[in-house]
Amino acid sequence: MQSLQQELWRLEGPRVLTHVGDLAWGATMHTGREEEWERRLWLDGDRCVAWAWFRRPAALDYDLHPDHLHGDLHGELLDWFESVAEAEVPRTTFALEPDDERIPMLQERGFAHTAGSASYVYYVYELDGSEAVRELPEGFRLRTVDPARDLHARVEVHRAAWTNSRVSEESYRNVMQAWPYRADLDCVVEAPDGSFAASVLCWYDDENRVGELEPVGTHRDHRRRGFAAAACQYALRRLREEGASHAIVYAGGRVEDEPARSLYETVGFRQHSRVIEFRKAA
Known about the structure:
By secondary structure, this protein is an alpha+beta fold. The chain contains 8 helices and 11 strands.
């Protein structure tokens, strides 16, 4: 799956639905979820040309090589999704906007984008060496994670940023073992007491020199102090130091997601596309 996403970035970046880091994070951030999904690959020899990630009861993430968007494989993939989706639940999937190949196929299959459907804004940042990191209040500092001693604090800042998160120390150990996780790109704001006030996990595709920020969060006790922006700026600088030319990040399209969009735009990300949800009645 990751090898296909790397190939797609070479062909189409940044107009790619999924980064290699999305796949690693989604597969490892929670333990005990294996029964909630099913994944299928389509191979041409040893080369992956399509993958589908079905999430129960009836959601689909997928991608294909552009050579197969018009062919039978695209239809076969969607047929498989219909065969495993629960009967009485509306089916959902996503597509980049605009997409003159994927969207017509979905519409032919009865999928439609309607008012109120979910969407995500896709941002890109061109790393040019001008990245500046804002100063933090006295006693706070920016650094990267030490896996040997920071696991508990790293999980705590994530859980304090994301209400009802199921990330645990066990699952974050799995994250740390997944390619392309790197502790020296797992960026945090450390508070004077040694706890973490904010965090930005960077996933770096060194083959394409593109990093992804996923997830970005601030501890609920430290919000509205500029820590998330400082952590993002530090993460961008770290990516550039490692040779990255671009960074990407996603933000929800809902009204309540406006603070996240404002954060990324303030840091210097520019919107390049939008992903929209397509839904089909049960």
